[in-house]
Hints:
This protein is of the alpha/beta class and 322 residues long. 29% of the residues lie in helices and 27% in strands.
Amino acid sequence: xxxxxxxxxxxxxxxxxxxxxxxxxxxxxxxxxxxxxxxxxxxxxxxxxxxxxxxxxxxxxxxxxxxxxxxxxxxxxxxxxxxxxxxxxxxxxxxxxxxxxxxxxxxxxxxxxxxxxxxxxxxxxxxxxxxxxxxxxxxxxxxxxxxxxxxxxxxxxxxxxxxxxxxxxxxxxxxxxxxxxxxxxxxxxxxxxxxxxxxxxxxxxxxxxxxxxxxxxxxxxxxxxxxxxxxxxxxxxxxxxxxxxxxxxxxxxxxxxxxxxxxxxxxxxxxxxxxxxxxxxxxxxxxxxxxxxxxxxxxxxxxxxxxxxxxxxxxxxxxxxx
Length: 322
């Protein structure tokens, strides 16, 4: 089968489109014929091996798993003997962990769900990591409630576009933070207010929020804390290497002083939350926003574009000839 392979850490140039042996499912796994995959910031962090602590999981000197890609959608080809939820022929979406940038991939049953009936494979592949991050950040870490004033920083990216929609579904008043060129996108997804960060610092506007959701953000934790109401919560998901390290080492200290909570988030894809998202998608309450599509063979170009930081919504890979 064809796959996107890398054997050393580095820029997108280390990626190669080549033939590799197809995988075989373990007892609790599903073998999926991939129809589409999507690109996430996690993919290029893994590709580059940055920040360095990430290599404790991916390999210290070189990657131990040589095919990138988490988000996938496709058709079940075969199932392991312990799989109960799926059978060959089912159309599914979810998280492969790694290995999704390929014609076939194995995924643990618990990290999959049946594909929403109203979505294409490309649309379904845009959902898992981004929408699960938004859902778990707002619901589980942020405790979102109807009437909350919610600020979403990084609102035009993959996670942010889902966060706007999920926050609105939850009955919140939503303020989106993004650049000038992306303000219309944020409004079209339901944001009540939009702040252009190139012209205004949200942390110095005088407005205060019950919940701040920082999606792939670059601001200081002190800026977020300043903009919270007493008792408010800031949830940080991703961001620059410096931002991630700051979140790891400072959030507990800041949460311990005063009544404003700073929480980090590493989303965990699971069947239960994928089913929640499936229901929201089928009801038309949320929808993926896809800016660009690339064939699988051009995955390096897709990741390079995502790294530039200008993408709106999701970047999706399609598997050629399928």
